[in-house]
Amino acid sequence: MKTRLLLPALLIGLLPSLALAANDAAEARLKASVDEVVAIVKQAKTRDALISDIKPPLQKILNFGVMTRRSIGPAWRQLTPAQQEEATKLFTVLILRTYTAKFTPGEFPLVEFKPSNSTAPGREEVPTTAMYKGSRYNATYRMEDQNGNWTITDVVIEGVSLVADYRTQFDAEFKRGGVEGLLSAMRRSVADTK
After folding, report:
1. At what angle do helices 47-61 and 2-43 cross, to 10 degrees?
2. Pick the residue with more confidence: 6 or 185?
3. Does residue 10 sit within a domain?
4. CATH of the domain at 149
5. Model confidence over 66-93: pLDDT tens digits?
6. Which of 151, 174, 152 is nearest to 161 (CA)?
7. Which of 177, 150, 142, 147 minimizes the C-alpha distance to 70?
8. What's the domain count of the chain?
9. Sign of CA dihedral 173, 51, 123, 110
10. If you write DSSP's letter for every residue of 57-99 in order, what string do you get?
11. Which one of 7, 48, 124, 184 is at 20 to 30 Å from 113 when CA atoms are compared?
12. pLDDT of 6 higher than 70
């Protein structure tokens, strides 16, 4: 009887340490990725080299599949698998081009990490403040544990969710032109960010 009562008490006692381990893992993953990106920005000699070199680490940490699906929202279910694949590729290019356009070779952000918090099992929010080119930016990285690999599934910049912002845009395009209207709008956005 005592063993049965003791076991739940031990498990409850472990929950905070398990949450801390998740916090530590998510933060460590994000910090390592930020360090890698900053090192690339520091060493880049040209804009083309910067864009080329920064994509692989971003593709490792950003979960484009989840981000695309959530950005498209309920309309996602109406896309065929081939259209879903195209939408994910377009969204990936759009985010990578938009993100890399913010950087200048040799100029790098100073990033301060704040304590993260768990929003649900396997989900962490890691708030940061970055100083870049004299401006201060607050960004919260929403991360999820995907089979032991923490990835970013949304970024909230100055209170605006990247996923929610794109969902508003994509939803309007879907309502206006259906699946093909949505994909055409995504293709145009990618073409405009070259």
Report:
1. 170
2. 185
3. no
4. 3.10.450.710
5. 999 999 999 999 999 999 999 999 999 9
6. 152
7. 142
8. 1
9. negative
10. HHHHHB-HHHHHHHHHGGGGGGS-HHHHHHHHHHHHHHHHHHH
11. 48
12. no
